[in-house]
């Protein structure tokens, strides 16, 4: 039976080396099995690797970048603005992806496409224009070195329209900083795994999109009715107002009280001066407006302005929790204006704030412990809370100057250069850790360690549940919790929606089952959708193991096992290494992978 609706059934394949843009019809089996977003991307990356005998340099022209919204992106339903960017990651060398909010994905769908893939390398710095079915690769060398926000404006001006949506890289992407991100809508980011460097390696400064097509929907009345119910449910939730007011900044106080807030490069897990960088401080002195992704009533984005002092005039969309924690408490900064300035710099250079905060924190601690010399730091000392030195280091990373050139290559290169830094850097598979300290809960450590992209919280954010329900969870329960998150969460990226309404406002999984059926006409049940979602987790595991990863890469960094939290509610806690290994054994068993973390022989055939 054919899929009734929900797709244009079109893929635009761009080869920047050949200068070609080819529209390709998508097969129904591909749409049905992989759904969209991360599902499309994982399958296309797998096929590209197979075509190159699994020898692809993440920064080589042969690496494939896939940009994919989902069948729900851009529709009238809650928080439907998500679009996935998928590729081999320059941070880890294996599978990588990152999801962007805003309205770029909605615009891409309105141009009549379900997925865009980009390979090759343009001769000159270029912009890919997708304009209602007309596609062009436009050389724009004049954009070299321009910041993200500036580029967004310049591209719109050059193309003569402010209705065009622009996803762009900054200097960091051009300079192949391995944790460079892609920005759109001012500061919505595909932040993690270095997708900005993949664009830079292709000489692709930006993708500009404009579309005016109606999106295909099987049962529009049914969808509207379901959407109305979901919006009402969200609006009536007890935390709805809090989310509108503070967005993710409300997590600062929660994480501090729970003892999971990174402070001083994860030496500690709470911050004594939290009151200076929390949601109340933002509301009292800095917030001037809200921002939201496409069709999202939560509008978790905060627009902040510094009105006085040395950073006067700094205006930022943000910070959200991760940025405030990693560029604030993790670096010993208690000045909210300085956090805003650092966030603005990262946005303009196009740098992932989580990776930057980790690497700068490690550099400060490395200097404190005598691992890094003054000479290593180019003669400029750096200490906790030293705002100016920290801002200078962000600039040096973006431009690859001095020590910034080593930090720009990410954790693995830093450890290779100074092996003792291995004890200070929080990373898994080369991806620097998100802002939730896993020493408070072993399920979070397992989630980070087994994540296909490295230490990123959105794969399985289990810490809150584990803390909330106490410490006497059995290993069985912890493993099942991690696997459930890893199974469900790809589905949000495949459908093209934000997962926050599910996490924070209790919008249950069945809503998404009904949205999917209304849009596509497919009578899929939630278990069927979850099976497809789980297949993607198996597929990305296969990609990683074919690229050489195994149990030896599902490890947690030194501090998690051997450096107890110093103060606060989790003081003294570490994750016992032997307990962790037992969890990992059980995890592999339940996944059906062998004791080395390798999926069963024969699984590959499912994806051919
Ligand atoms: Fe965007 Fe926040 Fe809404 Fe998610 S909750 S769609 S990140 S505004």
What is this structure, in a nutshell?
This protein is α+β, with helices and mostly antiparallel strands and 608 residues long.
Structure notes:
A hairpin with a 6-residue loop joins strand 4 and strand 5. The strands form four sheets. The protein has a six-stranded mixed sheet with strand order 2-1-6-3-4-5, with helices on both faces. A six-stranded mixed sheet has the order 8-7-12-9-10-11. By secondary structure, the chain is of the alpha+beta class. Helix 12 (336-349) runs parallel beside helix 14 (387-399). It is globular and about 65 Å long. It binds iron/sulfur cluster. Iron/sulfur cluster (SF4) is lined by residues 79, 81, 101, 292-293, 296, 298-301, 498, 500. Residues 79, 81, 101, 292-293, 296, 298-301, 498, 500 line the site of iron/sulfur cluster (SF4).
């Amino acid at each position: 039976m054919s899929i009734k609706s929900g797709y244009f059934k079109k893929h635009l394949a761009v080869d920047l080396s050949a200068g070609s843009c080819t529209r390709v019809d998508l097969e129904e089996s591909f749409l049905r099995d992989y759904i969209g977003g991360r599902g499309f991307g994982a399958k296309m990356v797998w096929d590209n690797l197979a075509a190159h005998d699994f020898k692809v340099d993440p920064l080589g022209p042969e690496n494939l970048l896939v940009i994919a919204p989902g069948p729900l992106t851009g529709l009238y339903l809650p928080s439907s603005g998500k679009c996935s960017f998928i590729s081999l990651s320059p941070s880890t060398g294996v599978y990588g992806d990152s999801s962007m909010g805003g309205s770029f994905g909605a615009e891409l769908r309105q141009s009549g496409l379900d997925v865009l893939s980009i390979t090759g390398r343009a001769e000159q710095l270029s912009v890919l224009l997708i304009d209602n079915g007309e596609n062009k690769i436009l050389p724009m060398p004049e954009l070299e070195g321009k910041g993200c926000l500036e580029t967004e404006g310049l591209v719109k001006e050059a193309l003569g329209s402010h209705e065009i949506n622009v996803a762009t890289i900054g200097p960091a992407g051009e300079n192949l900083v391995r944790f460079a991100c892609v920005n759109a809508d001012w500061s919505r980011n595909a932040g993690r795994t270095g997708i900005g460097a993949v664009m830079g390696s292709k000489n692709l400064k930006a993708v500009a999109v404009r579309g005016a097509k109606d999106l295909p929907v099987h049962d529009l009345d049914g969808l509207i009715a379901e959407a109305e119910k979901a919006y009402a449910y969200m609006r009536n939730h007890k935390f709805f107002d809090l989310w509108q007011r503070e967005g993710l900044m409300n997590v600062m106080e929660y994480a501090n009280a729970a003892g999971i807030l990174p402070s001083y490069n994860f030496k500690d897990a709470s911050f004594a001066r939290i009151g200076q960088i929390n949601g109340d401080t933002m509301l009292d002195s800095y917030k001037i407006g809200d921002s939201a992704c496409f069709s999202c009533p939560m509008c978790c984005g905060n627009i902040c302005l510094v009105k006085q002092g040395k950073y006067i005039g700094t205006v930022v969309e943000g910070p959200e929790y991760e940025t405030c924690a990693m560029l604030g408490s993790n670096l010993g900064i208690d000045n909210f204006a300085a956090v805003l300035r650092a966030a603005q710099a990262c946005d303009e250079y196009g740098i992932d704030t989580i990776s930057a905060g980790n690497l700068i924190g490690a550099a400060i601690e490395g200097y404190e412990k005598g691992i890094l010399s003054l000479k290593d730091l180019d003669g400029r000392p750096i200490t906790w809370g030293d705002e100016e030195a920290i801002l200078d280091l962000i600039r040096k990373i973006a431009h690859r100057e001095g020590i910034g050139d080593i930090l720009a290559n990410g954790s693995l290169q830093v450890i290779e250069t100074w092996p003792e830094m291995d004890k200070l850097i929080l990373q898994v598979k080369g991806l620097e850790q998100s802002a939730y300290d896993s020493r408070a809960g072993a399920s979070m450590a397992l989630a980070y360690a087994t994540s296909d992209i490295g230490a990123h919280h959105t794969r399985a954010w289990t810490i809150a549940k584990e803390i909330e329900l106490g410490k006497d969870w059995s290993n069985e329960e912890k493993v099942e919790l991690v696997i459930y998150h890893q199974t469900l969460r790809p589905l949000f990226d495949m459908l093209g929606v934000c997962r926050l309404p599910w996490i924070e406002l209790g919008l249950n999984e069945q809503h998404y089952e009904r949205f999917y059926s209304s849009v596509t006409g497919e009578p899929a049940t939630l278990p069927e959708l979850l099976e497809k979602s789980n297949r993607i987790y198996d597929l990305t595991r296969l990609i990683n193991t074919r690229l050489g990863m195994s149990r030896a890469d599902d490890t947690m960094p030194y501090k998690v096992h051997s450096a107890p939290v110093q103060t606060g509610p989790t003081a003294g806690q570490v994750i016992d290494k032997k307990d962790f290994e037992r969890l990992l054994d059980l995890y592999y068993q339940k996944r059906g992978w062998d004791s080395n973390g390798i999926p069963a022989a024969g699984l590959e055939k499912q994806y051919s």
